[in-house]
From TrEMBL:
Matches recorded under Pfam families: ABC_tran
Species lineage: Bacteria, Bacillati, Actinomycetota, Actinomycetes, Geodermatophilales
PROSITE patterns, alphabetized: ABC_TRANSPORTER_1 (PS00211), ABC_TRANSPORTER_2 (PS50893)
SMART domains in alphabetical order: AAA
GO biological process: one example: response to antibiotic
Matches recorded under Gene3D superfamilies: P-loop containing nucleotide triphosphate hydrolases
Membrane topology: Peripheral membrane protein
Location within or outside the cell: Cell membrane
Provenance organism: Geodermatophilus africanus
Name of the molecule in the record: ABC-2 type transport system ATP-binding protein
Major location (coarse): membrane
Gene Ontology CC, one term: plasma membrane
Length: 294
């Protein structure tokens, strides 16, 4: 049986006196699309850096496709888009891409790579003239130049507009269909919910939840009742309600007993226009899990 794409055991990372990753155990199989979620300081970027061999762990082991991180990177097994990745100035996109592809024994065929990453119109453009979203697409092309079986992404869509994000994740799904393992850290939880096969929630350097998005969401009790109510009425004393927010005329009630809440509202004559009842979102779940880990 081939080794997992990633196998972390007891990974511990310190930055001076700060414990960034705390005895982390994590295994990611080949072909999975996995989202790393959590607040700033949760340890996501430090974990990615350890996987890439950019820092030496204080303790624990890291295996990338059965190899040490440095060996895997040198063999072209890993492609990465880091949050603060840069491009050389005073060069054209095509020149940079050519330089990177030449460093691999078996680079991704140019025409397919350009089409996959959507940079066909950018090859002749100066790197310094790229927009934020265009830079991200070029960085993705560079990360994929060696046809890596593992792709690591740190906040990959942070500079993209809505259209760019949609195109980016279409590309990620195509890569997953080809068998590429995709691991990405993001604060855009709706993207993780829509794209990832599995979400790993981190807090204080530890994993606090790991599984399909639906399973992580279902672990959070309660639902939200949302409706339109004019005026300044308050609803925090309604049976079952654990929290109430109002934005303009829209009221959102977090409740542990939907039926009791709705019965009480109707008995009080609340019109409940535009009524919506939903379970916990991934954002609700992550906030609950992270808050409980502090």
């Amino acid at each position: 049986m081939p080794p997992d794409a990633l196998a972390l055991s007891g990974l511990t990372v310190r930055h001076g006196g700060v414990l960034a990753v705390d005895r982390l155990d994590l295994r990611i199989g080949r072909g999975e699309t996995v989202a790393l979620l959590g607040p700033n300081g949760a340890g996501k970027s430090s974990t990615v850096s350890a996987v890439l061999g950019l820092l030496r762990p204080h303790a624990g082991t890291v295996e990338v496709l059965g190899r040490a991180p440095g060996d895997a990177v040198r063999a072209g097994c890993v492609g990465a888009m880091l949050q603060h990745g840069g491009l050389p100035g005073e060069a054209r996109v095509g020149e940079v891409l050519h330089l990177v592809r030449c460093s691999y024994a078996d680079p991704w065929p140019l025409d397919d790579l350009v089409a996959t990453t959507g940079i066909g119109g950018l090859l002749g453009r100066d790197v310094d003239a790229l927009s934020g979203g265009q830079r991200q697409r070029v960085l993705l092309a560079l990360a994929l130049a060696g046809q890596p079986p593992l792709l690591l992404l740190d906040e990959p869509t942070s500079a993209m507009d809505v259209e760019g994000r949609r195109a980016f994740w279409t590309t990620m799904r195509d890569l997953a269909d080809r068998g590429t393992t995709v691991v990405f850290a993001t604060h855009h939880l709706h993207e993780a919910d829509a794209v990832a096969d599995r979400v790993v929630v981190m807090a204080a350097g530890r994993v606090v939840a790991d599984g399909p998005s639906a399973a992580v969401r279902s672990a959070v009790a309660g639902r939200t009742v949302r409706f339109t109510a004019p005026g300044a009425a308050t609803f925090d004393r309604v049976p079952g309600v654990t929290g109430a927010t109002r934005l303009g005329g829209t009221v959102a009630l977090a409740t542990t007993d939907v039926e009791a809440t709705l019965r009480a509202l109707l008995a009080d004559g609340v019109a409940l226009a535009d009524l919506e009842v939903r379970g916990a979102s991934l954002e609700d779940a992550v906030l609950s899990l992270v808050g409980g880990a502090r």
